[in-house]
Amino acid sequence: MNIDALPGQPDGENSITIRPAIALDVRQMWEIDQACFDPDIAYSMDIFYLHLLVNRDPAFVACESSGKIVGFLLTSQDKRRGGQVVTIDILPPWRRQGLGSKLIKLGEEAMRGRGAKKMALQTDVGNASAISFYGKHGYKNVKTLKNYYSHGKHAYQFEKPL
Ligand SMILES: CC(C)(COP(=O)(O)OP(=O)(O)OC[C@H]1O[C@@H](n2cnc3c(N)ncnc32)[C@H](O)[C@@H]1OP(=O)(O)O)[C@@H](O)C(=O)NCCC(=O)NCCS
After folding, report:
1. Most buried residue, 28, 37, 127, 158, by most Cβ within 10 Å?
2. Which of 24, 6, 12 minimizes the C-alpha distance to 90?
3. Domains and CATH numbers, the chain
4. What is the pLDDT of residues 20-45, one digit of tens each?
């Protein structure tokens, strides 16, 4: 994925709006995921269709005034009604401006509204920014999942009561 082909520099925080994701957003969301992660961690487009269109799981996008998506949150819910962060991706120029925080709070609120009692997620043990981000939002590292990703990369499982 050529990151230069994605939206450019921020033109001010006020120009960003957050809304629920719709079917037409899937391609942009997938492209951002490809830009944010190595190929062995990034999701296939099928995963986006499954969560967004088939399961109708809560998902939110942050958009520029032009409508271009610069970040998103995708969640899912398991049979025991636990919430899961599938992924949260903010394009590099828009990081550290509070967008990820706004998105995860919306996801937690949506899951609470569906009766979920906790949120869980997995992140690469080497993803220092994500580990710090989740820690700031009250998530605790509960276990290490060995060889969670392809090529033998390990993950941490983080959880937070809702
Ligand atoms: C992790 C990610 C979603 C955070 O989004 P963001 O919009 O930059 O986060 P926020 O601006 O809301 O940051 C909130 C807090 O998280 C922590 N944080 C975020 N990025 C950090 C970084 N690079 N280093 C250290 N702490 C960080 C800080 O405590 C920050 O608060 P502060 O800016 O007041 O210090 C973003 O870096 C990203 O998209 N990364 C690539 C994709 C990814 O790894 N997603 C996680 C998948 S499991």
Report:
1. 158
2. 6
3. 14-161 (3.40.630.30)
4. 999 999 999 999 999 999 988 899 99
Pocket flag, ligand 1, residue 101 (CB < 6 Å):
yes
**In angstroms, rounded to a whole number, what is the distance separating the alpha carbons of residues 97 and 64?**
14
Closest CA relative to residue 30, chosen from 47, 16, 17: 47
Whether this prediction's pTM lies above 0.70 is answered by: yes
Write out pLDDT tens, residues 42-88. Answer: 999 999 999 999 999 999 999 999 999 999 999 999 877 799 999 99
* CA 123 – ligand 1 centroid, Å: 13
Q: What is the dihedral of CA 104, 106, 107, 108, to 10 degrees?
A: 90
* d(CA 71, ligand 1 centre) in Å: 12
State the closest ligand 1 atom to the C-alpha of 71, by its place in the atom list counted from 1. Answer: 39
Q: Which atom of ligand 1 approaches the CA of 102 most closely?
A: 12
Tell the burial category of 17 from Cβ atoms under 10 Å away from its Cβ (0-12, 13-18, 19+).
Answer: exposed
